[in-house]
Design goal:
The complex is a heterodimer. Chain A folds into three domains: 35 residues; 186 residues, Penicillin-binding protein 2a (Domain 2) (Alpha-Beta Complex); 343 residues, 3-Layer(aba) Sandwich (Beta-lactamase), CATH 3.40.710.10. Chain A has 23 helices and 23 strands. The radius of gyration of chain A is 34 Å and the shape is elongated. The C terminus of chain A is likely disordered. By secondary structure, chain B is mainly α. Chain B has one domain. Chain B is globular, with a radius of gyration of 21 Å. At the A-B interface, α1 and α2 of A face α8, α11, α12 and α13 of B.
Chain lengths: 634, 369
């Protein structure tokens, strides 16, 4: 069978060749993948198993002036999505929604909002997840590829809503902020301060995000850590705030049942001891991601809890403005402290009759008595002698109508009119008659509570308008380094006789027969002044009756002790009808301040409010429309 | 039965190459299944030890099938064939079920997969039929008889279901038929018929998951996390290896389970990743050497039975090697088909080594009568 044998041999050779060709083709195929396209596949392999995970940095802790912790961090869980690891995003989100009870629509919304982030960056789907949610997600991790619970530091405000406006809050950096210079280097999804100190000192507080490069397997489970850059915690800041004074001021508001604002300063330095705005919000709600419902409730609340009334509320100063007028008159030597005016219950200026609040009048009063009694006729007269521009000059020197320069964002300023202002703004001449109502803090005059506090500080220390500030010291890793106080906004050397006379008048308001008796503290020589700010005009009030609260706001501005003052400030009580109702709030805060300083037990408000010191009289409402000149008359 | 002088005719080169491939496989299994303990250190995974036992048993089988004269086996091939069919039938009713199919017989300590031995048994009976009874295969009758020998185990295995293993019987048939002189025209006709029947088979014969596999092969990008995932991961694994590879035990694709069944179907991908193109070419060279060298044994065989036996076994072997390696580069639809001599799997290893025992047997006895 040689023929057969030959055929077999041939066919074996054929098989050998065929197989050899196929092997050669395989080699070419591998060459294409492994050599020609190696770079591309090597990158894909690295993307598969290498992850760079951000390590959020704890924010700097905030301390009060005595070293008490005000704001700190706690660990919370969030549930994040790693898009690279999900196979079916839609289904994963549905499963997650089912497991955690969060609506799937909300989850999808979050994902689509962050669609343009680099895909390796985790998207936080549920912030501040409950234990039950974390456990539910862990239990179903096989159905939830790319979903992982992570422990993160989150901001914690141990005193809940205390000093909320002062501390501010943190939340995810917004699209608009990302484009701005001061947010350079901050990546989408980072938490930044959005108000208060958190915003003002965000750069110090934020620290630096760290990251970890890890190897993960196909389920996203971490196998090995390749490198780790620890997060750098934000720098601790010491604030000028005294936590007890702050708490006392807020308790005072709650106890009295008012909303409003209060600012207390150290008149020697401009340090802010307390800064209150009521109603407040709870910044803890923001720390772990605020839910839509809470947010809506906050922005739709008619009481505007997010507004920092101390810096952003603009109100008529009422009689507290008389302090600025008195200062102007004495410093401009228009009058001496002994200058006397007869008050017969009203007086005529430029053909109009302006009432004093006291029917029948105060009789003959000097500056001190006029201050004590808040006599309108005296200040009409003095204001008329001064003219609006000199009032403007001194009101500005005391900080009214100006920004205080406090180290908090979004401060607004009030207005003290002048001829210049009226010409520029309304292109109209100033009428001397308009000055009369300005002289008692009516008309176009408007202030922020903070600016009144600045006025009291400046009057208390004799003319130095310190810049109110909150930052006392910073710890950059080597212990507390004091931060130098910012330069004063302006310094006018008030004459000692002026200072003495005004201090005397204000002392009498509280300790004499004035309207501030409810702020009296034995041995502390509290000096102050009440004021009343109308909410809307008298005619408007009639129209709005029953639809809104038209009761007047009460002011109490103060410093203590009269000689060498250590605390100065303002209490603004919304709808308190009268400034005397604001005085007890100031009193309680001052009592706390002095008790703490002298090492005595701090006062409490547990007892029912003490019987009010009899208030001699009420102040009048003179002006109907703030934007018009003085009205009234016989 | 075993004469001393036969010892001198053993093809040590082929045997060495076969064992070398098995050792490379062991190394790759060691690498992919190595258990890293937390805090450093680690130990070989249990599959490594199982594979070592399998190689040991396989060498035993190799020695057995080398020692017994292949002619004796061929003469009793019908009995062996029937025994295989009995086992395959038993598998369908009393087999061990795992991963959606029933392929194994439980033997207590381990499970045996009879289908792995089907290629060898089919080669044996077809070699016997064509080599002894006729002067080659010339006509349709021969083809139909051969087809019957082939179809019975084919359907029994496909029923498990294990289409991959069943399909490897096809090249065994064609290899032997071709060597036995089947007209090329006839082969072409059968091939055309197969192509025409493919749509019918697609419609009625294939299960959903099988359709899906072929579908994704044609279009792997459409669902990268779905069924096409394995294919893309296979390409990444191979491609990221580069020229020199990432180094032994430095692969990431298999170790971190991006590539499924890395120690089994995709072991060659892991080899490509860790040892690069150089490793691939070396391994391909080894396989090619084994195949060419084995076919030399067919050329040297003293009778047609021997030649057909070797040809049949090597056709099946070469088909499986080429298909698996193509698949491991993501260039063929994913099928549960192992790489003979390398992949993890006891039955596969034992059957492969036993088959090479037969090949060595044929060459060794080329001078005996």
């Amino acid at each position: 069978m040689p023929d057969d044998r030959r055929s077999l041999t041939t066919r074996l050779t054929v098989i050998q060749y065929v197989i050899a060709v196929l092997f050669a083709a395989l080699a070419v195929g591998f060459w294409i993948f492994q050599v020609a396209q190696h770079t591309r596949f090597a990158e894909m392999a690295a993307e598969n198993h290498l992850r760079r995970l951000p390590l959020p940095a704890p924010r700097g802790v905030l301390f009060d002036r005595h070293g008490k912790i005000l704001v700190e961090n706690q660990n919370s869980f969030n549930i994040a999505l790693l898009r690279e690891q999900t196979r079916n995003l839609d289904q994963t989100l549905s499963t997650l929604a089912h497991a955690t009870g969060v609506s799937a629509a909300e989850l999808r919304e979050t994902v689509s909002r962050r669609k343009r982030d680099p895909s390796y960056r985790p998207i936080v789907l549920i912030e501040n997840a409950t234990r039950a949610q974390v456990i539910a997600v862990r239990a179903r991790r096989w159905e939830l590829p790319g979903i992982e619970p992570r422990e993160v530091p989150s901001r914690y405000y141990p005193t809940s809503d205390m000093a909320a406006h002062l501390f501010g809050y943190v939340s995810e950096v917004t699209e608009a902020q990302l484009g701005r210079v001061e947010y350079e280097g901050i990546e989408s999804g980072a938490l930044v301060g959005q108000a208060g100190v958190e915003q003002a000192y965000n750069k110090f507080l934020m620290g630096a995000e760290g990251n970890r490069a890890v190897v993960v397997n196909s389920l996203g489970r971490e196998i090995e850590e390749l490198e780790k850059h620890e997060a750098v915690e934000g720098e601790p800041l010491q604030l000028t705030i005294d936590a007890d004074v702050q708490r006392a001021a807020e308790e005072g508001f709650r106890h009295a049942g008012f909303n409003g604002a209060a600012v207390m300063l150290d008149p020697r330095t401009g340090e802010v001891l307390a800064l209150v705005s009521q109603p407040a919000y709870n910044p803890n709600n923001f720390a772990t991601g605020i839910d839509l419902k809470t947010w809506k409730a906050l922005i739709e609340d008619k009481l505007k809890p997010l507004q920092n009334r101390a810096l952003q509320g603009i109100y008529s100063p009422g009689s507290t403005f008389k302090i600025a007028v008195a200062t102007a008159a004495l410093e401009e030597k228009v009058i001496t402290p002994e200058f006397q005016v007869h008050c017969g219950g009203g007086a005529s200026f430029y053909g109009r009759y302006f009432q004093c609040w006291k029917q029948g009048g105060h009789g003959t009063v000097d500056m001190r008595r006029a201050m004590e009694q808040s006599c309108n006729v005296f200040f009409y007269t003095v204001g008329n002698m001064l003219g609006v521009d000199r009032i403007h000059k001194w009101a500005s020197a005391l900080g009214l109508g100006e920004k205080s320069g406090i180290d908090l964002p979004n401060e607004l300023k009030g207005l003290v009119p002048s001829t210049e202002w009226k010409r520029r703004r309304l292109n109209e001449k100033w009428y001397a008659g308009e000055t009369i109502s300005v002289a008692i803090g009516q008309g176009q005059v408007s202030v922020t509570p903070l600016s009144l506090a600045v006025m009291m500080m400046t009057v208390a220390n004799g003319g130095t308008r310190h810049t109110p500030h909150l930052l006392k010291a910073i710890d950059k890793g080597k212990g507390w380094e004091p931060v130098p106080a910012p330069a004063p906004k302006s310094v006018v050397k008030m004459r000692p006789s002026t200072v003495t006379a005004i201090h005397e008048g204000l002392w009498r308001v509280v300790n004499g027969a004035g309207t501030g008796g409810r702020a009296r503290i034995e041995g502390k020589d509290v000096s102050g002044k009440t004021g009343t700010a109308q909410v809307i005009s008298l005619t408007g009030a009639r129209a709005a009756r029953g639809k809104m609260d038209v009761r007047h706001h009460g002011w109490f501005v103060f410093f203590a002790p009269r000689d060498n003052p250590e605390i100065a400030g303002v209490v603004f009580a919304e709808h308190a009808e009268h400034g005397s109702s604001a005085a007890p709030i100031a009193k309680y805060a001052m009592e706390t301040f002095f008790a703490k300083k002298e090492g005595r037990p701090l006062p409490t408000l547990n007892a029912p409010p003490a019987a009010p010191v009899p208030v001699p009289a009420d102040e009048p409402i003179i002006i109907a429309q703030p934007t018009t000149a003085a009205v009234g008359g016989p | 039965m075993f004469e001393r002088r036969l010892y001198f005719h053993i093809d040590w080169l082929l045997l060495g190459a076969v064992l070398l491939i098995a050792c490379i496989g062991l190394a790759m299994i060691y690498s992919t299944t190595y258990v890293h303990l937390p805090g450093g250190g680690g130990r070989p995974g249990p599959r490594f030890w199982v594979q070592i036992y399998a190689v040991g048993l396989g060498i035993g089988a190799l020695v057995f099938f080398l020692a017994v004269d292949y002619r004796f086996l061929a003469e009793h091939s019908l009995f062996v064939y029937c025994a295989l069919l009995a086992l395959l039938v038993y598998v369908l009713f009393g087999g061990v079920r795992a991963g959606g199919s029933t392929r194994w017989i439980s033997l207590g300590a381990f499970n045996l997969q009879p289908s792995e031995f089907a290629r060898m048994v089919l080669a044996l009976i077809l070699a016997m039929y064509f080599g002894e009874n006729r002067r080659g295969a010339r006509n349709y009758t021969d083809l139909i008889i051969a087809a019957l020998f082939f179809l019975v185990p084919f359907f029994l295995i496909a029923r498990q279901p294990d289409l991959g293993t069943a399909v490897t019987l096809v090249p065994v048939c064609f290899g032997i038929a071709f060597l036995a002189g089947l007209r090329v025209r006839l082969i072409v006709i059968v091939a055309i018929a197969a192509v025409l029947l493919a749509p019918v088979a697609w419609k009625f014969g294939l299960k959903e998951y099988q359709k899906e596999r072929i579908d994704t092969f044609l279009n792997p990008g459409q669902d990268p996390r779905g069924a096409g995932y394995q294919q893309i991961q296979a390409r990444i694994t191979v491609g990221s290896g580069g020229l020199k590879g990432k180094g032994f035990m430095n692969g990431t694709q298999g170790t971190y389970k991006f590539l499924p069944v890395a120690d089994n179907d995709f072991i060659f991908s892991v080899l490509a990743e860790e040892h690069g193109f150089i490793g691939v070419v070396s391994a391909l060279g080894l396989y090619l050497f084994v195949i060419i060298r084995a076919l030399e044994a067919a050329r040297l065989a003293k009778d047609r039975i021997g030649a057909y036996l070797v040809g049949g076994i090597i056709s099946g072997f070469a088909f499986q090697v080429i298909y698996n390696i193509t698949m491991s580069a993501g260039l063929a639809p994913v099928k549960g088909l192992t790489l003979p001599l390398m992949s993890y799997g006891g039955s596969s290893m034992i059957a492969s080594l036993a088959a090479f025992g037969l090949i060595l047997n044929v060459r060794m006895r080329r001078f005996t009568n």
